[in-house]
Amino acid sequence: MNIREKLRDKKKIIVKVGSSSLTYEETGEINYFRLERLIREITDLKNMGKDVILVTSGAIAVGTKTMNLPNRPNCLEEKQAVAAVGQANLMMIYQKIFSEYNQHVAQILITKNLIDQPVRRQNAQNTLNTLLKMGAIPIVNENDTVATEEIVYGDNDTLSAIVGKLVSADLLILLSDINGLYDSDPRKNDDAKLIPHVTEITDNIQHMAGGAGTVNGTGGMATKISAAKIATSNGIDMVIANASVDNVIEKIIYGEEIGTLFIAK
Ligand SMILES: Nc1ncnc2c1ncn2[C@@H]1O[C@H](COP(=O)(O)OP(=O)(O)O)[C@@H](O)[C@H]1O
Ligand SMILES: N[C@@H](CCC(=O)OP(=O)(O)O)C(=O)O
């Protein structure tokens, strides 16, 4: 059996979707085509008998639009304020569409540093595992009101790997606005080549990863590589793929050569 075919047997799956995949680059408005497809695919994973956690960005992007600001704010307090507005909005939308598929969702707001705090870590772990046992879909984002470090660097990528570690996930899927990891940023280099598999995260791989590609994205490929390090060193395979590909999750699960697969140690 080849490495890709094994992905079909993964039972506990984290799906992370970035702001750039949930909104239109030109207008900043929500991309409902994308959102509805994502929700349908996650429901299908559940119907296949898998446990799924969704890590979603987008609070700042959605809140910026809701509050009619011309651009994504730069100052921290304003980012936190629009994130609070956008998070409520985003959850309302997820709840509405997931309920059309008879799915129950739960909001989980956490910070990366909970991993270093045993009591908080245990509480987060208990809540997530109990939700999965109940058949609900935990929807996770950074707690932007208190997570000043993350909001500056925009690191839901690393957060999703930490969540994976917390629940001993089998697979982490990062859905982005790019096909996977290239040997250089394809927005800057027309000759950039997609890397289909990574077995070891060497210095060379880290040097390939640049910053965000659009005004809505944050962290870029660098934070995805940080996520890959945490995931693979904790036995979790990770795939970076393009959210705009039709049935992208199904294709990953059925072993299609799509995106970049980071193979767990
Ligand atoms: N080596 C690389 N391979 C692929 N993408 C890269 C690379 N270096 C930088 N990037 C940029 O990373 C972006 C994806 O990250 P980001 O903008 O943070 O999106 P997201 O909202 O999905 O997290 C791409 O659009 C691309 O411009
Ligand atoms: N917590 C922030 C997300 C920060 C973030 O990591 O963004 P992204 O690079 O789009 O995954 C928000 O919801 O806007």
UniProtKB/TrEMBL annotation:
Keywords in alphabetical order: Amino-acid biosynthesis, ATP-binding, Cytoplasm, Kinase, Nucleotide-binding, Proline biosynthesis, Transferase
GO cellular component: cytosol
Residue stretches making up the Aspartate/glutamate/uridylate kinase domain: 11-242
Position of the signal peptide: none
Residues reported in the UniProt entry to bind substrate: 57, 144, 156
Molecular function GO terms recorded: ATP binding; glutamate 5-kinase activity
Catalytic function, reaction form: L-glutamate + ATP = L-glutamyl 5-phosphate + ADP
Cytoplasm among keywords: yes
Chain residues that bind ATP: 16, 176-177, 218-224
Compartment list: Cytoplasm
Coiled coil: none
Record-level GO BP terms: L-proline biosynthetic process
Pathway: Amino-acid biosynthesis; L-proline biosynthesis; L-glutamate 5-semialdehyde from L-glutamate: step 1/2
Enzyme Commission code: 2.7.2.11
NCBIfam families reported in the protein's UniProt record: proB
Function, in words: Catalyzes the transfer of a phosphate group to glutamate to form L-glutamate 5-phosphate.
HAMAP family in the cross-refs: ProB
Family from the record: Belongs to the glutamate 5-kinase family.
Protein name in the entry: Glutamate 5-kinase
Organism: Vallitalea longa
Protein encoded by which gene: proB
